[in-house]
Amino acid sequence: KAGVTQTPRYLIKTRGQQVTLSCSPISGHRSVSWYQQTPGQGLQFLFEYFSETQRNKGNFPGRFSGRQFSNSRSEMNVSTLELGDSALYLCASSTWGNYGYTFGSGTRLTVV
Amino acid sequence: QKEVEQNSGPLSVPEGAIASLNCTYSDRGSQSFFWYRQYSGKSPELIMFIYSNGDKEDGRFTAQLNKASQYVSLLIRDSQPSDSATYLCAVNAQGGSEKLVFGKGTKLTVNP
Questions:
Q1: CA distance B102 to chain A (A)
Q2: B43 and A45: CB-CB below 8 Å?
Q3: Cross-chain residue pair A33–B103, CB shorter than 8 Å
Q4: Burial of B103 from C-beta contacts in 10 A (0-12 / 13-18 / 19+)
Q5: Which residues of A touch B44 (CB under 8 A)?
């Protein structure tokens, strides 16, 4: 069974640019969540999607947005990148029922 | 603000010893509790979840939950160098959502 697939694995962007990250969940998983991980803040919740609907949103500025498609694949977008957006972005999928997440390998974003 | 607190460590134990990792949470209504292991440069991996007060054992791992004290722990028996990683405690405090709130993790080193 394929795991959670995130693309790309690494990205280097310049301040002010925008970026789109992609996540394909485990087949059959309809819930997708996104987290930002930094050494200082740990894992910070960004969004949760279920059946194309955003169920939860974390305390991030409006520059961070996301969506989920009918096949459960999800994307997140960060506009007007800032240096502080440099982080590991993790996507996680789960089957409904609160059994915990399976994480993807993450996208390492560096903003220069 | 719902919080999950862990000692950042590092926690160092000799090979074969018992490693004890602790976590407290602020939301008394929390329902589900998870332990993730994260190796350096890798994404978090689910190792245990517990819903009810008491102990839950899985191989060398035992999760303990005390809802009255708002306390979750993870015991690793017969610790191995391969257990060296950061251990993340996560709490689901919101019904109808898969959202997890993570602690910042405890770094464990098992010395041969």
A1: 6
A2: no
A3: no
A4: buried
A5: 43, 90, 101, 103
Pairing state between β B71-76 and B85-92: unpaired
Altogether, the residues listed in chain B come to a count of 112
Q: Each residue of B5-47: pLDDT tens digit?
A: 998 889 999 999 999 999 999 988 888 999 999 999 999 999 9
Chain B residues whose beta carbon lies within 8 Å of the beta carbon of residue A68 = none
What residues of chain A score a pLDDT lower than 50?
A: none
Question: Edge-to-edge strand order for the sheet containing A74-78?
Answer: A5-7, A19-24, A74-78, A64-68
B72 touches B103 (CB < 8 A): no
CB spacing of A56 vs B104 below 8 angstroms: no
**Partner-chain residue, chosen from A42, A45, A106, that has the shortest CB–CB distance to B99:** A45
CA distances in angstroms from A36 to A27, B1, B10, B74, B100, listed in the order given: 23, 18, 22, 24, 13
Residue B108 has pLDDT above 90, yes or no: yes
